[in-house]
Design a protein that fits this description.
With 161 residues, the chain is mainly alpha-helical. 82% of the residues lie in helices and 0% in strands. It folds into 2 domains: 1-72, Rna Polymerase Sigma Factor, Chain: A; 94-161, Winged helix-like DNA-binding domain superfamily/Winged helix DNA-binding domain (Arc Repressor Mutant, subunit A, Orthogonal Bundle), CATH 1.10.10. The protein has helices spanning 3-25, 28-44, 54-72, 74-91, 96-106, 109-120, 125-132, 136-155, 157-160.
Length: 161
């Protein structure tokens, strides 16, 4: 890949990668850091990557960097999530976006990632498999399970009231 192609890749894909990471970790600063790390990893291998594969490589690098970040900060996140759960339950919901965001947050890591890649970013099952190192069947199963969870969460009366 040339420097111009790399710059074009930054222009074309930075927003999509940032949206994907932000939806998963809900922290703007850390999302920016993860995206920056992904672009740094891609720059280090710029000679080995073709422009045609740059999008897939970038999302894969960002996904793995995000997983490392999540694992590193898992204990802190669980404590914050637990304290947030009590507040959400007491206050109730009036906004559909809040309900959807809460449902997405409650998904297991892998289900959240594949669901966001499919439904928010529009990737094919094959592309999601390449990004997450899963085969297409696994991707379909995780998406199915995530959608079932979302459906059950959203139709629960105590979440809507």
């Amino acid at each position: 890949m040339t420097v111009n192609e790399y710059n074009q890749c930054v222009d074309d894909f930075a927003d999509g990668v940032y949206r994907f990471i932000l939806k998963n970790i809900k922290d703007e600063d850390n999302a920016r850091d993860i995206v920056q790390d992904a672009f740094t990893k891609m720059w280090e291998k710029v000679k080995d990557i073709s422009y045609a594969k740059s999008k897939s490589y970038l999302f894969t690098a960002a996904y793995h960097t995000m997983i490392d970040f999540i694992r590193k900060h898992k204990k802190v996140d669980h404590v914050e999530e637990f304290s947030g759960m009590e507040q959400d339950h007491e206050s109730g919901y009036s906004d559909l976006k809040e309900i959807l965001d809460e449902a997405v947050i409650r998904l297991p890591e892998i289900q959240r990632s594949v669901l966001l890649l499919r439904d928010y970013e529009g990737y094919s099952y094959k592309e999601i498999g390449e990004i997450t190192d899963l085969n297409e069947s696994q991707v379909k199963v995780y998406i199915y399970r995530a959608r079932i969870f979302m459906k059950n969460y959203l139709v629960s009366m105590d979440k809507v009231i």
